[in-house]
Amino acid sequence: MELDLQPLCLPSDNERPIVIAGPCSAETEEQVMTTARQLAGKGCHMFRAGVWKPRTKPGGFEGNGEKALPWLKQVKDETSMLIATEVATPEHVELALKYDVDILWVGARTTANPFAMQALADSLKGVEVPVLVKNPVNPDLELWIGALERINGAGIKRLGAIHRGFSSYEKKLYRNSPMWQIPIELHRRIPNLPILNDPSHIGGRRDLIAPLCQQAMDLGMDGLIVESHCSPESAWSDAKQQVTPDILDYILSMLVIRDTVAHGDTLASLRKNIDELDNDLIDLLAKRMRISRQIGEYKKEHDMTVVQTKRYSEILDKRGAQGSLMGIDPECIKNIFEHIHEESVRQQIDVINK
Ligand code: PEP
Ligand code: MN
């Protein structure tokens, strides 16, 4: 399904990307107002705060609910920042709109649930509000696109996506693995859909926010949504990943925004080189497959099995080591050779069955 989109038209400064900043949760009126005033003082145009908080286990701080909405309204009236909050149910949508929330976002846990997404979409029919849809917790691009389609199907044209990373059982450097190839593929599939990056929920740690922001910019993402709190260490949720408005301003001021459009002949000629090399690679692969088929003939004549495990492991190990000597990640080389081997096996089976 084609999405029917209009530009998000969110405020930003020329030299900076679109930035939405604010605390994970709206905790108290004082925390909300102090953080908002500091952010507005740094030139921030959009304020985020969670009013309803989806928590993994019961007993944690689940948000103040409706009680916090007048605080957000006060932020808007006093600072002129636009206000944004997470909605997960039609009731949330109704309340957020009642308090003039300007931007709604859908959290990762909600995006993963098509029933919840459809209920949200139905509640947005006839409403004009920009909606940002976070990626689902699991790395499933179709589910993400499906959620966007549901919201768009309800008539919401000012639509954007938020890349917040994906859960995995194994905890590595990041709280949520970024799997950049997924938002990149989303951009390839829906080029006019703006994508914001959420370095706070990807990193899960303050010190990862700056490099993640830079990486998002280098990949041509349209903006950032970052958790910022007047006193991060004492935050009621996500304390480890929040930064003060001061630090956020410093991080944003250090960002290098590169051009996404190609300039001059240099890039064109480099791309031509790449095209030629890709042609050579495919030629070489075809030659390799012809030899594979000859090996298939030999195996057929001598009644041998197609897959010779020892030979296969030897190829993977040797090629991996070779790649690493040439500055290529051995895992990447192994993956490539796994695919090549798979096709080789298919070709040999084809020969043997003839
Ligand atoms: C949040 O933005 O505070 C939040 C709960 O995010 P996510 O849905 O990405 O976990
Ligand atoms: Mn959070």
Description:
With 354 residues, this protein is an alpha/beta fold. Helices cover 49% and strands 10% of the residues. The chain is built from 13 helices and eight strands. It has helices spanning 29-41, 69-79, 90-98, 108-111, 114-123, 141-153, 181-189, 199-203, 209-218, 245-254, 264-301, 309-325, 330-352, and strands at residues 18-22, 46-48, 82-86, 103-106, 131-134, 159-163, 195-197, 223-227. Strands 1-2-3-4-5-6-7-8 form an eight-stranded parallel beta barrel, surrounded by five helices. Helix 6 (141-153) links the parallel strand 5 and strand 6 (159-163). The radius of gyration is 25 Å and the shape is elongated. The two termini are 42 Å apart. The model has no long low-confidence stretch (mean pLDDT 94). The structure holds phosphoenolpyruvate and manganese (II) ion (MN). Phosphoenolpyruvate (PEP) is lined by residues 24, 50, 54, 86, 107-108, 134, 164, 201. Phosphoenolpyruvate (PEP) binds next to loops.
Order of helices and strands: EHEHEHEHHEHEHEHHEHHHH
Average residue pLDDT: 94
Distance separating the two termini: 42 Å
Ranges with pLDDT <50 over ≥5 residues? none
What's the number of helices?
13
| Main β-sheet, spatial strand arrangement | 1-2-3-4-5-6-7-8
Catalogue the ligands.
Answer: phosphoenolpyruvate, manganese (II) ion
Shape: elongated
- Radius of gyration over alpha carbons? 25 Å
> Largest sheet, if any?
8 strands, parallel, barrel
Q: Strand tally, please?
A: 8
- The helix content is 40-55%
SSE blueprint and pairings:
Elements: E1 18-22, H1 29-41, E2 46-48, H2 69-79, E3 82-86, H3 90-98, E4 103-106, H4 108-111, H5 114-123, E5 131-134, H6 141-153, E6 159-163, H7 181-189, E7 195-197, H8 199-203, H9 209-218, E8 223-227, H10 245-254, H11 264-301, H12 309-325, H13 330-352
Parallel strand pairs: 1-2, 1-8, 2-3, 3-4, 4-5, 5-6, 6-7, 7-8
Helix pairs in contact: 1-2, 3-5, 5-6, 11-13, 12-13
This protein binds phosphoenolpyruvate (PEP) and manganese (II) ion.
